[in-house]
Specification:
Strand content: under 5%
Structural class: mainly alpha
Order of helices and strands: HH
Largest sheet: none
Low-confidence stretches: none
Number of strands: 0
Number of helices: 2
Radius of gyration: 23 Å
Distance between the termini: 66 Å
Shape: rod-shaped
Oligomer: single chain
Mean pLDDT: 82
Helix content: over 70%
């Protein structure tokens, strides 16, 4: 004979799985964004790339002003 099914436990496990998958995708996207940002910062410091350096310094000044 089958016992009583614990629906609350089942529902909480389902929500935990959904949140875990969402968190994994969120962390993955943040890591990609940080990697892209770091790669772009590296390119900005190639000698002779004055335009990129100007935009980088301008962005940094804007960030400092916001603090």
């Amino acid at each position: 004979m089958k016992g009583k099914y614990n629906w609350l436990n089942h529902l909480l496990n389902f929500v935990a799985v959904i949140l875990g998958v969402y968190l994994a995708f969120y962390i993955n996207e943040k890591a990609k964004a940080n990697q892209d940002k770091n790669e772009s910062l590296l390119l900005m410091f190639i000698p002779g790339n004055l335009r990129a350096k100007y935009h980088f310094l301008k962005e940094m000044d804007a960030l400092r002003a916001g603090l």
